[in-house]
Automatic annotation (TrEMBL):
Cited PANTHER family: INNER MEMBRANE ABC TRANSPORTER PERMEASE PROTEIN YCJP, MALTOSE TRANSPORT SYSTEM PERMEASE-RELATED
InterPro entries according to UniProt: BP-dep_ABC_trans_perm, MetI-like, MetI-like_sf
Positions of the ABC transmembrane type-1 domain: 72-262
Family: Belongs to the binding-protein-dependent transport system permease family.
Protein name: Sugar ABC transporter permease
Pfam families for the chain: BPD_transp_1
């Protein structure tokens, strides 16, 4: 009887999980389906599905009207560059907070995390003026710096959580064997925390790839990534839903594929330390 109840509960839990997943994924699925419809079918009321006019012309027109490879390359450089730069700064910072904590370490971590709760528009004017004065406006270097600063609190927090799980005695043993600080971080700490560093890197690449506010505000043409590519298909005379959906699908496809293949690593990273 107990086994039957357990099976029923497991079935209900599975159904509930699939229902929630379907609700979350439905807008993306609807966007992908719309991208293969004609403009007339895309705005039809009631919505058409089986009787819709299917076409690939939206993708062909989006490709012809825009320089997709350039937008794609900018997204790759900005997301990976900001993540690697963030890791280079966050690994020593998280090491010091995890293994040489001070009285204010917890407060510092909370303050860093609280900056992520601040509305981005609150610092829009200072950031815009700084970028103009420093010549960083519409440059990939400028966006790498901006997104690194935006995501640095999350990188430090995630690495701090991983590093806290590593026994300090191992690092002490390395010091007794003559390892300096740099060798300790590079050859002892980093290999042991490699799964955590990989999860942190994947999550921050996704966050940087999906960032729209700063990438649209601080660029015009040269350094514009795929978020600006999507915005360029929002025409002032009205939305062309099918073409906009095709552009959006082309923009999110690379990061969806990356997320699909790295989902185990991402889940492991996000749940690490949640259960003791």
């Amino acid at each position: 009887m107990a086994r039957a109840t357990s099976t029923r509960r497991k079935l209900l839990t599975t159904l509930a999980a699939w229902s929630v997943a379907l609700v979350i994924f439905f807008p993306v699925l609807w966007m992908i389906l719309t991208s293969f419809k004609t403009e007339v079918s895309a705005v039809a009321t009631p919505p058409e599905l089986l009787g819709a006019d299917w076409t690939l012309e939206n993708y062909a027109e989006v490709w012809q009207r825009s320089d997709y490879p350039r937008f794609f390359w900018n997204s790759v450089v900005i997301s990976i560059g900001s993540t690697l730069l963030g890791l280079a700064i966050a690994i020593p910072a998280a090491w010091s907070m995890a293994f040489v904590p001070g009285r204010k370490t917890k407060d510092l971590l909370m303050w860093m995390l609280s900056t992520k709760m601040m509305p981005a528009v609150g610092v829009l004017i200072p950031m815009y003026l700084l970028f103009q004065r420093l010549g960083l406006f519409d440059t990939k270097i400028g966006l790498v710096l901006a997104l690194m600063l935006m995501n640095l609190p999350i990188i430090v927090w995630m690495l701090y959580t991983y590093f806290k799980e590593i026994p300090a005695e191992i690092l002490e043993a390395a010091r007794m064997d003559g390892a300096g600080l740099w060798n300790e971080i590079l050859y002892v700490l980093t290999p042991m925390a490699l799964p955590g560093i990989a999860s942190t890197m994947l999550l921050n690449v996704i966050l940087a790839w999906n960032e729209a506010f700063w990438t649209i505000t601080l660029t015009t043409t040269k350094a514009a990534p795929l978020s600006a590519f999507i915005a360029s298909f929002s025409a002032p005379q009205g939305l062309f839903y099918a073409k906009l959906s095709a552009a959006s699908t082309m923009a999110i496809a690379p990061i969806l594929i990356l997320g699909w293949f790295s989902q185990k690593q991402l889940v492991r990273g996000l749940t690490f330390g949640a259960v003791k």
